Amino acid sequence: MKIRTLVLLGLVSMLSCTTKYNDNNRYVKISTDEGDIVVKLYNETPKHTENFIKLTEENFFDGLIFHRLIKDFVVQGGDPETKNAEPGKLYGEMDAGYLIDAEIVDTIYHKRGVIAMAREGDDVNPEKKSSSSQFYLVVGKVFTDEELNKLEDKLNKKLREKTEKKLYDSLLGSQSNLNPKFLNQVTQKVSILADSIMNVKHIKFNENQRKIYTTVGGIPHLDGNYTVFGEIVEGYDVVDKISQVQTDSNDRPLKDIKFKVRIVK
After folding, report:
1. Which residues of 63-99 are buried (b: 16+ CB within 10 A; e: fewer)?
2. Which range of residues forms the domain containing residue 166?
C-alpha cells in the first residue's frame, strides 16, 4: 500500500511539473542561498532568451553572487569575477565578453518581478546593447498617480537638457570665444528647435503603465532603456528577502548570497 501510494504521488508530481509550464516559453530556476526563483523567459526577446539559456547550459552562473542590491530598486548579479568574490571588493565591470543587441519591446514594462539585462550608459552605448551576463531582478515600488506625474516632468526635463546639448554641439562644434550676440542667437534657435523636438518625443506614461505602476509596482523610468526578457513566476518572496540584506556604500551585500541557474523547461 505504501509503495503504491509513493508511486502515485510520484506520478502526480511528474504530471504537475509537465503541465505547470505547458506554454511554449522557456523556464529557468535561480537557486539562491535564500531559496529558489522560477523565471519565465519571453519569446518576444529571442536573442536574450537564447543567450540566457546558453549560459545556463554552460553552468556560467554557478557560484556567482548578487553583487548589487538596492532596496525598492533591483537585485543584480552575473559578474563572472564574483565566483571567488573577495570581501568588500566592488564588482560589476565584467560579463561573458560580448554584447547583445537591444530587444526593447514597448509593451513590456519594468514591473515588479521582471528580469532584465544591465548595460553600459548611453554615452558609450547609444544603441542600448545589453551585457551578455549581468542581469537584474526588479523590486521597485508602487507609485501614486501624482508621483508618476512628477516623474514624467523629471524625465522630460532631462530629455530637454539632453536635446539642447546635442543641438548646441551640432551647431557650435568645438568653437569657443564666439561673439556674445551670435551665441544669444544660437541659444534662441536651440530653444525653438528643442520645443519642436519635445513635441514629438514627449515622455508620457500610457494607461497600461499607470495601471501596472500604481498596483503591481516597478521601476517606470527604466522603460524603453533596458531589455526586459522575462518575469518571475515563483519565488518573488525570495527576491524580496534578498533585497532587504544590508549593504555597504557600494550597494554590495555585507553577506554574500550565491546562486546558480538551471533549466526547468
Report:
1. ebbbbbbeeebbbbbbbbebeebeeeeebbeebbeeb
2. 145-200
